[in-house]
Amino acid sequence: MQYLVALAALAGAAVAQSVGISAPPSNAKVSAGSDITVKVSKPNSLSSSEEIGIAIAIGNIDKDPSEVFGDVLYHGPYDPVYHESTQAPYQNFTITIPSSQAKGAARINVAHAALIGAGPEPWLETVTSNITIV
After folding, report:
1. How many Å apart are CA 107 and CA 125, to the nearest integer?
2. Where is 16: in which H helix or E strand?
3. Which of 37, 70, 101, 117 gives a 20 to 30 Å CA spacing to 57?
């Protein structure tokens, strides 16, 4: 029983470290060759964490981004901060959709790495948002 409680606590701490793509909205229409803003949000958490960084890519809708990440458009520091009191901390990234990007369904992929907890423990996740290239 104690094992289940500990497992649930660890799962809760890990989920609290998750990021999300707040922009562009899911199924947004984006032109090849255009600049877009990718807003990566991270809800506040009671457990400590130290950001390592993120990578942002555009990928194929039919590929698992944890296996085939796509064309990397940004990789580097991630430092989410509060901008509005009603929103979670976030950081905006301006990326350019490659002009050679095929029209149709595509996916914005974000890989996020952090150290969480007192240990600390490494944390790596991939989140996605579907878009349409027009």
Report:
1. 16
2. helix 2-16
3. 117
Domain ranges (residues) in the chain: 2-133
Q: Is the dihedral of CA 86, 56, 19, 50 positive or negative?
A: negative
Q: 2-133 in CATH: which number?
A: 2.60.40.10
Please state the pTM of the whole predicted model.
0.85
**Sequential pLDDT tens for the chain (134 residues):** 555 444 444 444 444 579 999 999 999 999 999 999 999 999 887 788 999 999 999 999 999 999 999 999 999 999 999 998 888 999 999 999 999 999 999 999 999 999 999 889 999 999 999 999 99
Total residues belonging to the chain: 134
Contact 98, 119 (CB under 8 A): no
| Cα→Cα distances 133→11, 35, 94, Å | 36, 12, 17
